Amino acid sequence: MQEILLIIFLTLGLQANTKEDIQEACNAHKGKACNDLGVLYQVGQEFNQSDEKAKVYYTKACDLNHAEGCSNLADLYLFAQGTEQDYAKAKVYYAKACELNHSDACSHLGDLYCIDTWVEHNRSRAKLYYEKSCKLDNKKGCKNLKTLMDENEAFEQLKEEYERLEKERDLLIKEAELLDI
Known about the structure:
Serine Threonine Protein Phosphatase 5, Tetratricopeptide repeat, 2 domains
């Protein structure tokens, strides 16, 4: 995970700013700068690696309505980095990031609703979040939406077959009762 964050960090050209510039921008309530500080702490670039300090800056970024900061904070809760694992908090922060149109967060939120052990299992809510993620051009969200829809279609086919067999059973029972009379 840290390697991915470092690659993203370097790809976005964030290394051009000094850590002092980024700190100053965060102090001036710039959500992106606070998120960038969180990334620096999480990957251990410019600072000693600290998930706890990353959490502080991601929280500040999220409070400033920076979608990526909210999503990064949710990741910390989901994967118990610098904090206790807390699926409910991960859900809250992914939801906020999704509201701010962060496509990965929408996809992750869909995942949370699909996997029983994380939050309440609710395939219709998962579908809504996967749809939003897909509309935001997130390939994983689109793939998950397709998988969910395929599973729903298979379930519906099984349900129809079950109902057909129940009706057939009921007819056989009625025929058997008529023969006994």
